[in-house]
Amino acid sequence: TCLFGPIVGFVLHLRGTPCLHASAVVIDGRAVAFVGHSGAGKSTTAAAFVRRGFAALTDDVLALERKLGALKPAEEYLVRPGHNVVRLAPDAVRALYGAEDALPHGGDTTDKRHLELTADGSRLPAGPVPLGAIYVLQERRPDLDRPVAIDDLKGHEALMALVARTFMNYVLDAELRTRALDVFSRLAAR
User: Fold this and answer.
1) How far apart are CA 185 and CA 119, in angstroms?
2) Are the CB atoms for 111 and 90 separated by under 8 Å?
3) Is residue 96 within 8 Å of residue 113, measured between CB atoms?
4) Where does the pLDDT of residue 60 fall: very low under 50, low under 70, confident under 90, or very high at 90 and above?
5) What confidence tens digit (pLDDT) does each residue in 121-155 have?
6) Of 31, 38, 57, 137, which has fewest CB within 10 angstroms of its CB?
7) Helices 42-51 + 90-97 axis angle, to 10
């Protein structure tokens, strides 16, 4: 768990691949990402899509690769496949599968359960998938009784949402933060 989380995320940053704290699934050949702080429901949302037959792409660490277009200055962003496990809190497992013990314990020091993405014969995509959308999940607030809302973030709001969800941001030096900011500002402009 430690290797496929913080260490891999940090190494990817060092190699020039900015990462978001996010989960992603593939819908119609495009990556749909769910970013947010811990506990926002990123993994739970991805697992709900997996339960409905969509392929998972990554959980917790979303590595972004910028690809320049060949014919014009257009650019595209690709999401690299991650580890073949979605880690879920017991309450999420109960909500999705009916009981906390419906999925095996991950064998680490947390209470997280592991949804093995290849257990049913499915596989992660073989290579990077073009990014289609990013959804920013807000903090879960059980005390708020309001319907789900989807707002379109633009400009500085979109940029700040991405910067705030930079994976391992607290260990990045100025150069690595600058690289990530460059990619995220271009992405937010799109």
Assistant:
1) 38
2) yes
3) no
4) confident
5) 566 777 899 999 999 888 766 666 666 667 788 88
6) 38
7) 20
What single-letter DSSP state applies at residue 48?
Answer: H
Three-class SS of residue 25?
Answer: strand
Count of C-beta atoms within a 10 Å radius of residue 129 = 23
Which residues are paired to 129 by β-bridges?
A: 79
pLDDT of residue 26: 94
Two structure tokens written together for 176: 């690595």
Q: Could you give the CA distance from residue 165 to residue 133 in angstroms, rounded to a whole number?
A: 15
Residues written for the chain = 190
**How many helices (H) and strands (E) are present in the chain, helices listed first?**
5, 8
Contact call for residues 99 and 93 (beta carbons, < 8 A): yes
What does the block give as tokens for 10? 């940090």
The proportion of the chain whose per-residue pLDDT surpasses 90, expressed as a percent, equals 17
Q: How many whole angstroms separate alpha carbon 149 and alpha carbon 130?
A: 25
User: What region, left, alpha or beta, does residue 12 occupy, with left being phi > 0 and alpha being psi -120 to 50 degrees?
Assistant: alpha
| Tens digits of residue pLDDT in 61-117 | 888 888 766 555 567 899 988 877 888 888 998 999 998 888 888 777 778 888 887
Spatial distance between the Cα atoms of 179 and 183, rounded to a whole number of angstroms: 7
114 touches 105 (CB < 8 A): yes
Q: Which tokens hold the place of 116?
A: 């093995």
